């Protein structure tokens, strides 16, 4: 059988179905550094956790809509499609009539699958817009703090992240890369929407040849690229701001900062200067002060500050640093530090955010708009910052602060999720479970019985990208991929589009939603519209039929060399920044004017709410997994190979393990006051002492905690039972899932069985007549 082209967030690839019905995959032939995550794909295709048929929670079917604490603990009953669609359409209609469209939460955060047309959120939002709108969500879990902070201080995400200095420019011009959070190669095989040539992954893999010096500042040694020249600086988690301030103070008092740059291109340095000198609070933020907080010796801090002024220096911050309490501060402080060096806008110098976080930051690929499904207009203005989901469900009517505004949580009756997994992505899952008990109805579209599907009332089975046709490509992708259908839909799975079209029909808006097009007609339509745009810019783009037959179209290349903010540097009057002052705001009078104690008007060290103590002495790093994409692929071969007795590996320093009588391969219990999970211990010197690391993405597999009445124990190793549902600050209200404080002990006693690899209790499909 022939190989068909397709793509995914971890890269373009070829796939085919074997005679026995299994799936074979191989990397795209032009990919210099294919992602290991591809190895998870074949097992997922017909895994027992695929949702076979529409299913409804028994209590909802029997008692009707209403708050239910039993969500996630009850049997499901399979229904035929017509019956299930009637129930969903009827409930949407009831909620909008009785409570208004604001009572429908359609924020539905999540990565879903690649593919421009079948993008689940776009489909859901378009559908909900045609039926009168929905309460939406803003920003992302990825960049909750930065997306709000950056526009105040330097420009929006598009200006800063999408136009980051490219890797070839850095390799050629940078002498010293000061990498807060390191440059973790594990993350760059992923780009939302896809990537055909993994340029950043290849660059990091061959890093040794670049000759560039790196200071990798991270609690983990292996956040640095392999064979790099430079040093690993282990840092106490959450204290980078103190280190940055210590560096800034040294530059200031040794008069090594670039006053001319600060005068011409920045505002408010004098306020920051007084803060550094401790004029207001009596505490100079000198290297000694910083050392006491971050654990890096003061002499090293001073030496690095000097070294940074000796050549071209790029200061970069991974996204993880802002996924913490006061996560706005490290990003802002790094910007201020780079401004003091005066190299912003010069090739190889300045400020970066997200090298090593994701594949497209630094990738020199083309910067083009790709075909997208129009979502229509949402008549409902109500929204939440995305990570406030549990607060919203638990506290309807409560007022809260966000970016200078006073907002009120709406009263949500119906939650509709397609393409995301809040029981993967949200913090404090025991609290999220309580929150999911509140609405009248929860509808979820999923290919798999994820924890979110298990906590829903109505679960509709959807196809995966391999089971439908689409057009694929990511930001900075070199190719547009014709995603051919490789497999028939699994059992009764339908496309999100087909489901929404059927609901739209029941609610009398079929034409508005579908515009009379089949999926293939939509692909042709979206492609044609996009082709016209590109042709108007002078690009020769083939007709759809030719593109589809070829399986891909190589996009017109972008400039290899890009320097962030080069035009601003060259002429700040003609190219002002989109900030209130048109310059880099080291002091923001707008943010200061909000009066938030947790986000003052300049970068500042703000101690976290929780500090290590005898009960919870270890920092937990809950970072992105190297073996899967979030929860996606956790049932696949690559993810499973890393587990210990089926549990997610927890890396712990041998000294910390010895103190606790833990040996490599032991099952451990990781816990704090919010919850507990089991994990498999991996002793490792890659982790600094006092820190343990447990990646996100092990499917939530909860039981009642035998050691703590009323508590939740995840027997598989999901760190979000431990993280706090606490916002970054009143400014951004971003997610802070990266860190928690925990204790670890050896698990003794019998090992509870894993339930997540099987579907929940299910009563199989019966005909419509005999369902209640
Ligand atoms: N503790 C902690 N938590 C974190 C983070 C952290 O650093 N620490 N990081 C956060 C970050 S940055 C992110 S982005 C989030 C990620 O959180 P999510 O994006 O919610 O995680 P995914 O597992 O990618 O969930 C996508 C879901 O969509 C489903 N899906 C795939 N294709 C389709 C489709 O075509 N249709 C439908 N309907 N569904 C589909 C998949 O099966 C999967 O369950 O996690 C956040 N959570
Ligand atoms: N393989 C794979 N790649 C992915 C993803 C995935 O799920 N799997 N998810 C993608 C997504 S959605 C996103 S948003 C990006 C996220 O990109 P990031 O947020 O940058 O990724 P993380 O792996 O969470 O964190 C990067 C590193 O920061 C370090 N770190 C944590 N806390 C601190 C700290 O306080 N100080 C310092 N100096 N370092 C710290 C950790 O050791 C960690 O390995 O990754 C993307 N890439
Ligand atoms: Mo993310």
From TrEMBL:
Residue ranges of the region described as Disordered: 25-46, 748-772
Record-listed E.C. numbers: 1.7.2.3
GO BP: anaerobic respiration
Cellular component GO terms, alphabetical: outer membrane-bounded periplasmic space
Molecular function, one GO term: trimethylamine-N-oxide reductase (cytochrome c) activity
Biased composition (Pro residues): 750-763
Keywords: Metal-binding, Molybdenum, Oxidoreductase, Periplasm
Stretches assigned to the Molybdopterin oxidoreductase N-terminal domain: 6-46
Cofactor: Mo-bis(molybdopterin guanine dinucleotide)
Domain of life: Bacteria
Keyword Oxidoreductase included in the entry's annotation: yes
Domain Molybdopterin oxidoreductase stretches: 50-505
Signal peptide: none
Enzyme class: oxidoreductase
Keyword Oxidoreductase carried by entry: yes
Domain Molybdopterin dinucleotide-binding: 618-736
UniProt cross-references to InterPro entries, sorted A to Z: Asp_de-COase-like_dom_sf (IPR009010), CT_DMSOR/BSOR/TMAOR (IPR041954), Molybdopterin_N (IPR041460), MoPterin_dinucl-bd_dom (IPR006657), Mopterin_OxRdtase (IPR006656), Mopterin_OxRdtase_prok_CS (IPR006655), Prok_Mopterin_Oxidored (IPR050612)
Similarity remark: Belongs to the prokaryotic molybdopterin-containing oxidoreductase family.
Protein name, as recorded: Trimethylamine-N-oxide reductase (Cytochrome c)
Organism: Thermomonospora curvata (strain ATCC 19995 / DSM 43183 / JCM 3096 / KCTC 9072 / NBRC 15933 / NCIMB 10081 / Henssen B9)
